[in-house]
Amino acid sequence: MSGFKKRIDSFKWAFNGFKIAFKGEVNLKIHLVAATMAIALGFLFDIDRYEWLAVLIVIGMVLSAEIFNTALEHLADFVSIERRPAIKKIKDLAAAAVLLHAIIAAIVGIIVFSPYIIAYLQA
């Protein structure tokens, strides 16, 4: 297999991963709704380039964390279908990482958008 074909295949596999994640994960859909709202607010309030950077970085962090969490959950379920304390700990840690990213994203959203919302409400 040529190097170029391997690169093309790696993109196909990655897009298949997106498809798997978006089809089966309710939490990812919730994060996508929040991301869409943040992007819409960014356009509505015409945020500056640095604010866009902050918003897009935290969106990417949350979505990536959720996909990693999903992958770890599937791997843990594959390794052991029975309930085990060690598997629960792994799943809880991965879920905590998603929660941490979501909290940081919410804080960034408040920092970026609250001045615009306050100014809009006062107008």
From TrEMBL:
PANTHER family in the cross-refs: DIACYLGLYCEROL KINASE
Topology of the protein relative to the lipid bilayer: Multi-pass membrane protein
Keyword Hydrolase: no
EC number of this enzyme: 2.7.1.-
Top-level taxonomic group: Bacteria
Keywords, ordered alphabetically: ATP-binding, Cell membrane, Kinase, Lipid biosynthesis, Lipid metabolism, Membrane, Nucleotide-binding, Phospholipid biosynthesis, Phospholipid metabolism, Transferase, Transmembrane, Transmembrane helix
UniProt-listed InterPro entries: DAGK, DAGK_sf, UDPK
Statement: the UniProt record of this protein carries the keyword DNA damage: no
Primary subcellular site in the record, as a coarse category: membrane
Enzyme class: transferase
Subcellular localization, as worded in the UniProt entry: Cell membrane
Protein name listed in UniProt: Diacylglycerol kinase family protein
Segments passing through the bilayer: 28-47, 53-72, 93-118
